[in-house]
Each structure stands twice: as C-alpha cells, then as structure tokens.
Design goal:
Layout: H1 5-11, H2 17-21, E1 28-32, H3 34-43, H4 54-57, E2 101-110, E3 118-131, E4 135-146, E5 152-163, E6 176-178, E7 197-202, H5 207-212, H6 224-229, H7 239-254, E8 262-269, E9 278-288, E10 291-300, E11 305-315
Antiparallel strand pairs: 1-3, 2-5, 2-8, 3-4, 3-6, 4-5, 7-9, 8-11, 9-10, 10-11
Domain Peroxisomal multifunctional enzyme type 2-like N-terminal: 30-164
Domain MaoC-like: 191-300
Protein name: MaoC-like domain-containing protein
Length: 321
C-alpha cells in the first residue's frame, strides 16, 4: 500500500536509534495450561476438517493413556503476545503509526520439549534495527525460560517493518544494527522439482477471532474499521496463525505429527490471508535422514497468491509419506 504524504510526514524523523538499541525490557512471567495449548491448536486448524482425526486429537485431548496433550511447536509463537501489547511496542525513541506496522518475518528455535502446562519467563531484547529508507526494520528477540530457571525453552525473533519510519540516518551509510550472525537466517530458494508433498487446508470465517483467544489481539485481525484504515478490505488472519497452518502441514507430511521433531522454523510473510480462504502448502524435503529441512510455500487457492514461505528443520524424523 502506498503511503500518503501526510502519513509520511507524521512519522518522519521519528526514530532515535541510540535510545532504541539501549532499551531494557522488563522480564515478563506468565503461566499457561492445557486449555491454552488446545485452544491454540484449534486456532490454527487442528481437527477443523475432521474432528476425529487420530493425528490431531492428541493436540486437543488426552486419550489412549496420554499423560498430557501434545504441543504444536508454533504454540511458542504466542508467547510474544504475553509481553505488553505484543508487537506494538512502546519503546523510547520509537515513534510510528501503528496502522503502518507489518510483521515481515519470524524465526523460532526450540531447545527442548515444550510442556503442556508451565510458568515461564520472557526475556526480551532489541536484536536489530535497520534504516531501509522508506521503512524502519526492527527485530525483537524473546527468550522464554521456565520460571526461576536459566533453562531456555525457545527463542522467537520477530522482524517488524514500520512503514514510513525510515530515513532516520545518513542515506549514504544507513544505520544497521544486529546482535546475531547474518547466516542464522537463510533465504529460501525453491527447487524446480515437483513438491515432495502438498497439503490443503480451509480456514474458517471466524479463524482470526479464534486465534485472538491465544493472544493475537491486534485490531487488524478483528476490527473492520481498523482493517479498512490499514488498507485491507476485511480483518486479516494473523501471520503467525498462517504459519501455524503451514507447520501443521509439514508435520502431517513428514514427521507423523510428532512435535519433538521440529527444531527450527523460519518464515517470511508475503501477503495477507482473509479468514475463510483455502491455504495450499507446497513442500520440498531435502537433507539427510537424521536432520532434514523442509522448504515450504503457502498459497491462497482462491487468489493464486503466495502468502508465506520458509523452511522447517526436522531432526530424528519419521516420514509420513
């Protein structure tokens, strides 16, 4: 969406990089239980096509002697919503128009089994800030530990595009700051071959509202007036919800819905998804048996538009093909 002159003027010179990168976030402690885990799974489509699906009932219901339900790896993406207003940050030196914020990329590392109930602590920091001319790019890293422990369960890194907030540094040497190595996140190049697997999933008209119950409370996903002001015809599905659908497709296709096989998830959000649309995820499996990478691309069937791409690292997997 093109920015108007007034929108550009409202956010010009709105970034103070020194204040932003030195900001210290307070730690945030919260708890969750199996109800939260099950509600999240339903929010990203589990059992929506078949309420008796043997592979997905384990995500929402204890049966056949299960001591606990299984946790989708992307459940940890909801942890970032527990810190204040999620991605709508209140950071000194960071001034922007919330309607022009876009969640552009997301990266997850999982370091061990995610319990189905726990008290955990988020430790948050600014992992990157970049001047891209027309936009400022902010990277927010969240480490989540068991409460009272330094044992890290997972890491989320969110890349946020603040349209109209760029141009805060010398254009000949634009400001760029990062706390992690550039090779940690690789670009996705899709093979020319036929996909190893394709999975189709239809979202529900109420999908964004259901996802909101897991903490995705941005009005862009629920308020028609806000969505229209941001340039969308209707409220849109949270990007992290679309990611949940895509990773479910990968798990169904390659690791028999076993959450422990998923170690890393990377994605780039390409376009919006409207609730009620059909998601088609194409997947290419590469690598050795003990550690394989699945490259995926998710499209909206009705519009033929790619909306998400990335890869998932699987370890000690058992193929479902």
């Amino acid at each position: 969406m093109a920015l108007s002159a007034s929108a550009m003027a409202s956010v010009v010179n709105a970034i103070d990089p020194a204040m932003i990168v030195s900001h210290k976030f307070p730690e945030v402690t919260f708890g969750y239980d199996e109800r939260d885990v099950a509600l999240y799974s339903l929010g990203v489509g589990a059992c929506s096509a078949d309420a008796e699906d043997e592979k997905e009932l384990q995500l929402v219901y204890q049966r056949n002697g299960q001591s606990s339900i299984k946790v989708l790896p992307t459940f940890v993406s909801s942890f970032i919503c527990k810190s204040g207003s999620g991605l709508r940050l209140d950071v000194p030196g960071l001034n922007y128009d919330p309607k022009l914020l876009l969640h552009g990329q997301h990266y997850i590392e999982i370091y061990g089994p995610i319990p189905s109930r726990a008290n955990v602590t988020n430790k948050i920091k600014i992992a990157g800030l970049h001047d891209r001319g027309k936009a400022a790019v902010l990277e927010l890293e969240t480490l989540t530990c068991l409460e009272g422990s330094d044992d890290v369960l997972c890491m989320n890194r969110s890349t946020i595009y603040l349209r109209g907030a760029g141009g805060f540094s010398n254009s000949s040497q634009p400001f760029s700051y990062a706390t992690y190595a550039a090779n940690e996140v690789s670009n996705v190049t899709f093979p020319d071959s036929t996909p190893s697997a394709v999975y189709e999933d239809r979202t529900q008209n109420s999908q964004a509202l259901l996802c909101g119950l897991s903490g995705y409370l941005d009005p862009l996903h629920s308020d028609p007036t806000f969505a229209h002001a941001a340039g969308f015809s209707h409220p849109i599905l949270p990007g992290l919800s679309t990611l949940g659908f895509a990773v479910r497709a990968v798990m169904r296709s390659f690791c028999s819905m076993e959450p422990a096989a998923v170690k890393r998830i990377s994605c780039r959000f390409l376009h919006q998804v409207y609730p009620g649309e059909t998601l088609v995820t194409e997947m290419w499996l590469q690598g050795q048996r003990q550690s394989r990478r699945v490259y995926y691309r998710t499209k909206v069937k009705e519009r033929g538009r790619a909306v998400l791409s990335g890869h998932v690292l699987l370890e000690h997997m058992f193929s479902s093909l």
